[in-house]
Amino acid sequence: MTNGKLMVLTGPSGVGKGTLVRSLLQRHSQLHLSISVTTRSPRPGEVEGQHYYFVSRNQFSEMIAAGDFLEWAEFTGNFYGTPIAPVKQQIQQGKFVLLEIELEGARQIRNTFPEALRIFILPPSWDELERRLRSRGQDSEEAIARRLQRAKEEIDAAGEFDFQIINDDLAETLKRLESVLFIPG
Ligand code: ADP
Ligand code: 5GP
């Protein structure tokens, strides 16, 4: 895995990672988003193979045992993992591969793939994070509460990352992200 580049985007749920990734993919054809495997149920509108590969817990366990994941973690009661084969293949082809993953997975990548560029997205304020999480309108109250609790731990670890970017104004954030992602070398 030498030619391409691995980039990791992490940040608390609701901070705007998905929104940023969608814009980045539209603007940069050299970027490839890794599609994760999850045991979470699909949200309305989520498409198999496009947003995630949705599997049962048994299937997920079998994939762990088979060594199919580059990293995996449990997040607020569900399992999430990055399939290793497509990432390897795309990096060998010289492509830029983006992982949008939570903190534990990002820590695993730091150990197994130290040359990966790791970016943490921060909210402008705690109140705004809560507002965004609710405005998405796709999670239950219980899921929102669990995600907010986890968000505190994630934000505390922001300093572990190569770059921290506050997602206040979306256009500004995109510019800053692009300047970090496309640093030569
Ligand atoms: P994540 O993928 O990090 O969980 P999303 O991309 O789903 O977050 O964004 C959560 C909500 O916040 C969405 O309703 C989205 O439109 C909104 N949002 C994202 N970025 C911004 C921003 N810079 N300013 C205001 N709202 C935003
Ligand atoms: P959501 O349920 O909102 O789609 O995702 C919940 C959290 O899981 C987010 O922080 C997201 O970045 C993270 N996530 C998504 N896919 C993966 C993955 O493959 N591995 C890890 N470790 N986290 C993931």
Structural class: alpha/beta
Average pLDDT, all residues: 94
Distance between the termini: 15 Å
Shape field:
globular
Q: What share of residues is helical? A: 40-55%
Enumerate how many helices there are, as a single number: 7
The unique ligands bound to this protein are:
adenosine-5'-diphosphate, guanosine-5'-monophosphate
Radius of gyration: 16 Å
Percent in strands? 15-25%
Q: What's the arrangement of strands in the largest beta sheet?
A: 2-7-1-8-9
Low-confidence regions: none
Number-wise, the strands total 9
The quaternary organization reads as single chain
Biggest β-sheet: count, sense, barrel? 5 strands, parallel
Order of helices and strands: EHEEEHEEHEHEHHEH
List keywords for this structure.
185 residues; alpha/beta; 5-stranded parallel sheet; 42% helix; binds adenosine-5'-diphosphate; binds guanosine-5'-monophosphate
Secondary structure blueprint with pairings:
Layout: E1 5-10, H1 17-27, E2 31-33, E3 37-38, E4 53-54, H2 57-65, E5 69-75, E6 78-83, H3 84-92, E7 96-100, H4 103-112, E8 117-122, H5 126-135, H6 141-156, E9 163-166, H7 170-181
Parallel strand pairs: 1-7, 1-8, 2-7, 3-4, 8-9
Antiparallel strand pairs: 3-6, 5-6
The structure holds adenosine-5'-diphosphate (ADP) and guanosine-5'-monophosphate.
Guanosine-5'-monophosphate binds next to β5, β6 and α4.
